[in-house]
Design goal:
7-stranded parallel β-sheet, Rossmann fold, alpha+beta, Jelly Rolls, binds calcium ion, 5-stranded antiparallel β-sheet, binds 2-acetamido-2-deoxy-beta-D-glucopyranose, 13 helices, single chain, Alpha-Beta Plaits
């Protein structure tokens, strides 16, 4: 009897919580944003992981600097100056305010917004950006794989080309093929030096990271002080802060580019004729404002910025650059390299073993950045290298032949063979792009993206399943993008490159219809016939980037899968499930990139499919999935790019001399 009673009351309790408490909890947790017409919530910019808020507001004011100064005084703020490159945005700090607060100081934000001439404001917060570091776990897993790949009989034909002690260990730049073997197992960079006499001369690169040991024997001759600044301490000196042993990342990335040849020390940089500077950003407090300064530092001199960092690769974060950083990148594209656009090269991310996917990283989803993934020396995708349809191309990185990974400089004037991850892959790609840039400085930021799509190779990576060929005959894989970078091929094409026509942009807001829920058992599927702005000046016939912007409610964000099928029938999986992402806030105007349709025609039927990848009784019962907004932004040209007049050639044409 007692048992029955207990069972009944237990049942009632469970029923009660399902019927009342859960929906109530659901409603309550939906929206905590203050009601103010001008208030913009922090959305997908990492505020959930903010370390603290700082005493600094960026304020967009309808007026000049003198006027902004007056507004600041009237409202009890200090005026701290105007922001470069962003129209009428000013920096304020509050008189007598804590330098750090755990939460946003809403009273001050709303006070500013109440002013009739304030159009927008946000309090700055310390962002949690992480280096794509050689995490301990990564090392452990690499050690566990003791399998030796290369046969002892295989010899490099370039081994004696440079006298540097560590050069023979730069396996990714040697050519080990015996005459019969067909798979290229290096980046094909030496022929660029030997046959084309190109080493990156005249090209300026900036490593945005934790500083550079610029006194290092193998770096100092190519170090560019005018391309360097320490934003963490607001001074010039970018020497790594040695107290923290993690501050070797930037020095390692810089060495990959410019290690001096034939000085016996360490190895040889990919673009050893180029110059490199360092912007220190990742050794201290970083706000959107500081980051935006880093991303446009020395803009009148720089050609390429390389960043091996981003939101945490924990499989939970879904963040991108804030408003100011985004504006900085756009300025770099519009004004950099005399209007041809600087190149922003970013590491795709090291979170694959945490279930992370680079579609959740706004730095990767930007059309302006070139995302680089890694391949192992046996042509497999390493356990850390993230996948998404925003990956552009691949370079070799941490191989399986422990302990030799990527050879580069290390702090305290030493060398290392331990550099790894997509951290190592991105600077290597930046170095190869520097070679192409020396070959043809007339190319725009989009020309370089085209050239990578047109020359990267699939053959060395072909054993990995999942390659798709689009209707422009370009192969694409979300782990590798358009394939492994082939330096000689890229530079050779660059030398004869014809600029692609002006970029057009066609924005299409899709009608999602009356709200219909999706669940595990019933996916949301809609097709749209699209003319791609035909008849208008934005008409696109040859696609480049495709962006999908979605607002989706789902109580467990990591379960949602989003797919987009183009008129060609080629399908992009824009977002894959991320098991550790249990955020309840869903997607708020989150933008994802796909490069898979590059070169295709956009005209015809596009289909979205959105569904939960996992059955969850409660989520299914409460029909928590809802598609609220959907937008497609197409980029490309009306005119056919010149290089499309012949078919893309894949490497059967191996040049063995
Ligand atoms: C490096 O030294 C080798 C052998 O002495 C020589 O053939 C080569 O041209 C040198 N390369 C450079 C870039 O100085
Ligand atoms: C190359 O091919 C020839 C003929 O097929 C064969 O005799 C030779 O052993 C091969 N060499 C290597 C290194 O595989
Ligand atoms: C190679 O290029 C350098 C400058 O980048 C130039 O000084 C040198 O003469 C060139 N060598 C040859 C053989 O063309
Ligand atoms: C770059 O453009 C200039 C002027 O249009 C032209 O003279 C030069 O030949 C071009 N260089 C290359 C490598 O295309
Ligand atoms: C798109 O157009 C094709 C051809 O006219 C038609 O068969 C198809 O039903 C249309 N699709 C949608 C979603 O309207
Ligand atoms: C997404 O952005 C559009 C335009 O900026 C806006 O109209 C819409 O309300 C936003 N949706 C959500 C859910 O924030
Ligand atoms: Ca050296
Ligand atoms: Ca990531
Ligand atoms: Ca990108």
């Amino acid at each position: 009897m007692v048992l029955v009673c207990l069972q009944v009351s237990l049942f009632l309790l469970v029923a009660f919580s399902i019927i009342y408490i859960l929906p109530l909890y659901y409603l309550l947790s939906l929206n905590e944003n203050p009601q103010h017409e001008k208030y913009t919530p922090y959305s997908h910019v990492g505020v959930e992981r903010a370390e603290h808020f700082v005493n600094q507001w960026v304020v967009h004011i309808d007026g000049d600097a003198a006027f902004a100064d007056q507004v600041a005084q009237d409202l009890g703020f200090h005026y701290n100056g105007i922001i470069n490159g962003l129209n009428k945005h000013y920096v304020f700090s509050k008189e007598q305010h804590n330098p750090r607060t755990p939460e946003e100081t809403l009273t001050e934000t709303l006070g500013l917004l109440n002013h009739p001439h304030v159009l927008w404001t946000q309090q700055q917060f310390a962002k949690h950006l992480t280096k794509r570091a050689e995490v301990q776990e990564l090392r452990r897993q690499l050690r566990a794989m003791s399998h030796v790949y290369r046969e002892e009989t295989e010899v490099s034909k370039y081994e004696t080309l440079f006298t540097d002690e560590w050069w023979p260990m730069q396996w990714y730049e040697q050519d080990y093929r015996a005459t019969n073997s067909s798979k290229r197992l290096d980046l094909n960079v030496v022929p660029v030096y030997q046959k084309l006499n190109i080493t990156g001369a005249g090209v300026n690169l900036i490593i945005i990271d934790d500083g550079i040991e610029y006194t290092h024997e193998d770096i100092k001759d190519n170090f560019a002080p005018e391309l360097s600044y320490n934003f963490n301490a607001d001074k010039w000196d970018i020497t790594p802060r040695y107290e923290d042993p993690r501050n070797k990342h930037g020095t390692r990335c810089a060495g990959e580019l410019v290690m001096k040849p034939n000085n016996s020390k360490c190895g040889v940089g990919v673009c050893y004729g180029a110059r490199v500077g360092g912007v220190k950003l990742l050794d201290g407090e970083t706000t959107d404002l500081i980051e935006s300064k880093a991303l446009q530092f020395a803009l009148d001199q720089v050609d390429i910025y390389s960043g091996s960092w981003g939101p945490p690769d924990d499989g939970k974060a879904m963040d991108g650059p804030g408003k100011l950083s985004e504006a900085a990148i756009e300025r770099g594209i519009k004004e950099g390299r005399n209007g041809k656009g600087v190149l922003y090269v970013f590491a795709a991310g090291n979170g694959k073993s945490h279930g992370d996917n680079c579609a959740a990283d706004g730095y990767i989803n930007s059309i302006f950045t070139i995302a680089i993934a890694s391949a192992r020396e046996d042509g497999e995708s390493p356990f850390y290298s993230e996948e998404c349809t925003g990956v552009h191309a691949t370079t070799y990185s941490g191989g399986i032949t422990d302990p030799v990974k990527i050879i580069t400089t290390d702090v305290h004037d030493t060398c290392t063979c331990e550099h790894s991850g997509t951290s190592a892959a991105a600077p290597m790609a930046a170095g190869v792009l520097a070679l192409a840039l020396e070959a043809n400085p007339n190319m725009t930021w989009r020309d370089f993206q085209h050239a990578l799509a047109w020359t990267s190779e699939t053959e060395p990576l072909s054993q990995v399943s999942g390659w798709d060929r689009n209707s422009r005959n370009l192969w694409y894989h979300p782990a590798f993008g358009f394939g492994l970078i082939n330096a000689y091929k890229l530079v050779s094409y660059a030398k004869n490159w014809k600029n692609v026509a002006t970029q057009r942009k066609c924005e299409i807001t899709l009608d999602v219809g009356p709200p219909t829920e999706f669940t595990y058992s019933s996916p949301w599927k809609r097709s749209y016939n699209i003319t791609a702005c035909s008849g208008s000046q934005n008409e696109i016939k040859y696609l480049e980037h495709v962006l999908a912007t979605v607002s989706i409610d789902y109580r467990r964000r990591g379960d949602v899968q989003i797919e987009l099928t183009a008129p060609s029938g080629v399908k992009s999986v824009l977002m894959r499930p991320r098991p550790d992402d249990d955020a309840e806030i869903g997607f708020a105007n989150w933008t994802m990139l796909t490069l898979k349709h590059w070169g295709e025609s956009p005209v015809g039927e596009w289909t979205f499919e959105i569904f939960a990848s996992k059955y969850d009784i409660l989520l299914d019962l409460f029909k928590s999935g809802k598609v609220k907004d959907l937008k497609l932004t197409l980029f490309g040209t009306k005119e056919m790019p010149h290089h499309y007049s012949t078919e893309r050639i894949y490497e059967e044409d191996i040049d063995l001399d």
